[in-house]
Structure formats: C-alpha cells, structure tokens
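Researcher: I'd like a candidate sequence for this fold, 268 residues long. If you have to choose between options at a position, lean toward the conservative one.
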C-alpha cells in the first residue's frame, strides 16, 4: 500500500482545520479575544450560521480525504456555497469581511476547485483502479505451490502475495486470462484459491500475475488471516514505504528541485 498523494493530504487537512485560523482571523478583525469571540459567536448566531462557520470546510476536507466518486460533487457543492456565504458576509459586515479579504477567499476557492478539476487529479476520484494507494501490501515470499487448470497440475513457486493475488514463477506454458486454481500450505494455512492470469512478467521468463477471483467468505477470511500472519513474520514488502515525515521531505525536495509532485503520479 502506498501513501495518498501529498497535495490531496495537505488540502484535506487544511480544510479539516480551517475553522481554527478562521476564528483567529475574525477575532483579530473584531479586536476581540479568541475565546470571547467563540463564546459570543455560539451565543448570538443561529444553528445554520454555526454549521456554516465550523462544519462546512471540515466536511469538504473529509470528502477530499476519502477520494471516492461522491467526493468531488460534495466538495464542489460546499465550495460553491462557501463562495456565496463569503459574498453575503461582505455585504452584511464589510468592516470584518473586507473587499481584499473576500477577494483572497474567492481566488483561493477557485484555485482549489480548479486543481481538483485537472483531469489527472479528477480521474483518481472517478476511477477506483487508479487509486494506487488503496492497493493491498504485497509481501515477498518463497513459497512452493500448485497451479491446476484443464491441462493438469503444475508445480509453481510464489515470489510475492497480497490479499488480491500472487506473483508466480513457473516453467509451464500458459495464456493470458487463463483460469485456474492455486493451492499451497504456508504458516499452518492450507488454501486453494480460484483466479486468473492477468499479466506476464519479464520477457523470456515464465512469470505471471495471478488475480484471486470468486472467493467464498471462508477463503477470503483465511487469506486475510494469512496476510496478517505473514506481516507478523516481518516479511519484506515489495514496495517498502518510508515513514511519513521522510516521505514528505522527499516530496518537498522533488517539488522544489523538479517542479513535479503537485499532480498525482502513480509509482513505477
């Protein structure tokens, strides 16, 4: 599993935490203590105004963070409504919501919405297959197994495995999309799993990716238990992931040295 793209993480966190700097800003603009301003706001404003002030942006941040099909419609709807409330606030209290301030809000709102409408960003929200960070962790193994199809039973070796499939080494001749069963015993788990060959590995080498299909509840549960057991054995991941702050540091360095990193780019 890989980490969500940092721009999405940062924008989600900024939206989730937005009420805090907004309270500070409004308290400063009204020359009021932060705690006094908060008490006065809750005491004098109606429920709708409190909801707009404290919950709209966090809801938008939650939508950004989830990266689902419903995320963009919810986010754009909230951003549009927030834009309307900013304009209304300027009309009602121009001394607090000044023209330069409202202009800044409008530019920021439009910029963020435009970012999520960039095709390379939008597609991650609309197509689950492109959310590479949701893929299950693959662990390196050295596991003897059997591959069974209509041609018979073949000896194979698994070089890595995840909840959704395995990478197979063998000397058998086979075809793409061929269906079969893989069976093996590992860490006291004996499994026979149905699936299909979905891609071939290195040219000239008999390697292929095998995707697990049509799992019954018991097999699905046993695979998850097996993966937890493999993880406890401290098996190496096929794509080790840095600690978050090291990964963030690398992203910042790449952003400022190459200009890359603002648009999500699948790992290779």
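Model: Candidate sequence:
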């Amino acid at each position: 599993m890989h980490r969500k793209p940092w721009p999405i993480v940062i924008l989600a966190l900024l939206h989730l935490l937005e009420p805090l700097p907004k309270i500070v800003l409004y308290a400063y603009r009204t020359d009021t203590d932060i705690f006094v301003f908060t008490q006065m706001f809750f005491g004098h404003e109606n429920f709708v105004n409190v909801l707009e002030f404290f919950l709209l942006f966090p809801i938008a941040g939650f939508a950004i963070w989830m990266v689902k099909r419903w995320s963009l419609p919810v986010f754009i709807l909230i951003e549009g409504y927030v834009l309307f409330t900013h304009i209304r606030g300027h009309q009602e209290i121009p001394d607090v919501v000044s023209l330069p301030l409202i202009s800044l809000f409008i530019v920021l709102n439009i910029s963020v919405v435009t970012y999520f409408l960039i095709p390379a960003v939008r597609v991650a929200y609309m197509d689950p297959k492109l959310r590479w960070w949701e893929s299950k962790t693959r662990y390196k193994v050295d596991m003897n197994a059997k591959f069974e199809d209509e041609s018979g039973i073949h000896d194979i070796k698994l070089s890595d495995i995840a909840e959704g499939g395995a990478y197979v080494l063998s000397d058998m001749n086979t075809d793409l999309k061929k269906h079969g069963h893989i069976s093996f015993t590992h860490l006291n788990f004996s499994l026979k799993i149905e699936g299909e060959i979905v891609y071939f590995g290195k040219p000239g080498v008999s390697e292929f990716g095998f995707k697990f299909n049509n799992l019954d509840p018991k097999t699905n549960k046993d695979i998850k238990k097996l993966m937890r057991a493999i993880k406890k054995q401290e098996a190496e991941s096929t794509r080790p992931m840095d600690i978050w702050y090291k990964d963030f540091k690398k992203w910042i360095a790449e952003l400022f040295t190459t200009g890359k990193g603002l648009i999500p780019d699948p790992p290779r």
